[in-house]
């Protein structure tokens, strides 16, 4: 047994008498493959030295990718000196028949007093474990955030892309009718000055915004324009003339003015030509708006990830990060029938930090707030400057929702690792623990105030 312990890389410099202490105070076991050493939530009270075999820590879902950590021979696991571990959040499974030596936690107190070198090595193992666990949880939370954002981003991109495809197909069909309109115009005998006056009216209307009409007002204007076009023999069968005229704020007064300029013999052809241009402009405008929406989404994801910047500490515009996060979560916000009030001060100073980490804070807090309002509600995000008596300046950001609130009996636990109130599969249990860690990393603080109908998280970050 002593020779087997000597094969552990961590024990390479440990004196023989200290390793012999492990042998004398430990219990040797052979465990068959498939044995569950510990289920999630079960107590852990043994230091485990894996002499041979393989043990994995997994999520307990029995999926192909649910392994978290794999321990090979000469690995150290379980309780370590000065560790506060009392239970495991995950399952410990023997994947390959294993030979272990385990030492009860009560024995570790004696070891800490008697064997300095051995204790030092095991404490170093605990430090490495904490560091690895922190990296893992941060990566898990980033992946969970990415999954939520990807789903919403795919939906948000699908809408403008579909609009562009639809408008392009409509324009292709519309352009096939252009030769007929051109023939009508070629048969008209109009002086240049008359053509110019009609062009001026057309471009004036093209530059105007669409009128905000009620359903009743639009119906009334449709009737008036349809009657006018029928009276003057405009061809309304091959092309919808009324709709485009209303969309660009044409009235019967505008048509009467055109009639005075071109005369009754030419009004039909001129009207068709005008509407043809209006339809083309409308389709171009739809394509432009959809393209702009795609550009906004791409810009938001670029700002969110800050992929054009280095990974180091830099100046951060909190308002930009919050707006980008809201854009990427817009699908979820709208899908939950949640309204958003954004009150960001215009003179917010920049803070010094890691943009990607801070955007992860806003993602978790906003996502949790929306989840707290499944039947709709109001999300309020505000940010302001605070000057403290010690001369330091802070930016205080508050994210509040009108959900059911956080019960008193769990409020002290919400920042614990893996704690979640969501159903299985709907929460990582990592979010608020990661949020608190990131805020502390930025020398800030986070507080929560909650009662039914109002939950508010306050994030205070120093300037400079």
| Average pLDDT for all residues | 82
Low-confidence stretches: 423-430
Number of strands: 13
CATH topology title of the largest domain: Heat Shock Protein 90
Could you describe the largest sheet, including whether it forms a barrel?
A: 6 strands, antiparallel
Output the CATH class name of the largest domain. Answer: Alpha Beta
Count of discrete domains = 3
Pfam family, one: HATPase_c
Domain Cyclic nucleotide-binding: 10-129
GO molecular function: phosphorelay sensor kinase activity
Protein name: histidine kinase
Task: Summarize this entry quickly.
This protein is of the alpha+beta class.
Task: Walk me through what this model shows.
- This protein is α+β, with helices and mostly antiparallel strands and 464 residues long.
- The chain folds into three domains: 138 residues, Sandwich (Jelly Rolls), CATH 2.60.120; 112 residues, no CATH class; 157 residues, 2-Layer Sandwich (Heat Shock Protein 90).
- It is 49% helix and 20% strand.
- It is built from 14 helices and 13 strands.
- Strands 1, 2, 3, 4, 5 and 6 form a six-stranded antiparallel β-sheet that branches. Strands 8-10-11-13-12 form a five-stranded mixed β-sheet.
- A hairpin with a 5-residue loop joins strand 10 and strand 11.
- The protein is elongated, with a radius of gyration of 35 Å.
């Amino acid at each position: 047994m002593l020779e087997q312990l000597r094969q552990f890389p961590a024990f390479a410099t440990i004196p023989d008498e200290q390793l012999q202490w492990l042998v004398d105070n430990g219990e040797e076991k052979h465990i068959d493959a498939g044995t569950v050493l510990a289920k999630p939530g079960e107590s852990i009270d043994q230091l485990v030295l894996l002499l041979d075999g393989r043990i994995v820590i997994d999520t307990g879902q029995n999926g192909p990718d649910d392994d978290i950590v794999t321990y090979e021979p000469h690995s150290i696991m379980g309780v370590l000196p000065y560790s506060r571990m009392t239970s495991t959040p995950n399952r410990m499974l023997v994947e390959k028949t294993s030979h272990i030596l385990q030492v009860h936690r009560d024995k570790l107190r004696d070891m800490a007093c008697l064997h300095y070198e051995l204790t030092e090595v095991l404490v170093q193992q605990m430090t490495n474990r904490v560091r690895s666990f922190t990296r893992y949880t941060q990566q898990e939370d980033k992946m969970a955030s990415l999954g939520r954002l990807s789903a919403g981003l795919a939906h948000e991109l699908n809408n403008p892309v579909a609009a562009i495809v639809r408008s392009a197909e409509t324009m292709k069909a519309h352009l096939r009718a252009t030769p007929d309109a051109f023939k009508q115009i070629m048969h008209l005998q109009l002086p240049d000055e008359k053509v110019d006056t009609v062009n001026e009216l057309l471009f004036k209307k093209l530059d105007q915004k669409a009128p905000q009409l009620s359903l009743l007002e639009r119906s009334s204007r449709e009737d008036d324009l349809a009657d006018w076009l029928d009276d003057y023999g405009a061809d309304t069968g091959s092309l919808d003339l009324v709709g485009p005229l209303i969309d660009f704020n044409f009235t019967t007064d505008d048509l009467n003015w055109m009639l005075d300029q071109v005369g009754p013999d030419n009004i039909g052809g001129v009207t068709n030509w005008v509407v043809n241009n209006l339809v083309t402009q409308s389709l171009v405008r739809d394509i432009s708006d959809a393209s702009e929406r795609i550009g906004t989404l791409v810009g938001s994801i670029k700002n969110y990830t800050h992929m054009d910047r280095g990974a180091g500490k830099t100046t951060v515009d909190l308002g930009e990060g919050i707006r980008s996060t809201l854009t990427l979560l817009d699908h979820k916000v709208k899908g939950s029938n949640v309204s958003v009030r954004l009150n960001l001060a215009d003179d917010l100073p920049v803070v010094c930090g890691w943009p990607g980490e801070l955007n992860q804070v806003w993602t978790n807090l906003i996502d949790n707030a929306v989840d707290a309002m499944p039947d709709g509600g109001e999300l309020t995000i505000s940010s302001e400057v605070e000057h403290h008596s010690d001369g330091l300046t802070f930016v205080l950001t508050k994210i509040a929702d009108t959900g059911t609130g956080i019960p008193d009996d769990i409020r002290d636990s919400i920042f614990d690792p893996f704690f979640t109130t969501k159903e299985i599969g709907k929460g990582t249990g990592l979010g608020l623990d990661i949020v608190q860690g990131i805020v502390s990393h930025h020398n800030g603080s986070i507080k929560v105030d909650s009662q039914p109908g109002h939950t508010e998280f306050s994030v205070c970050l120093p300037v400079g």
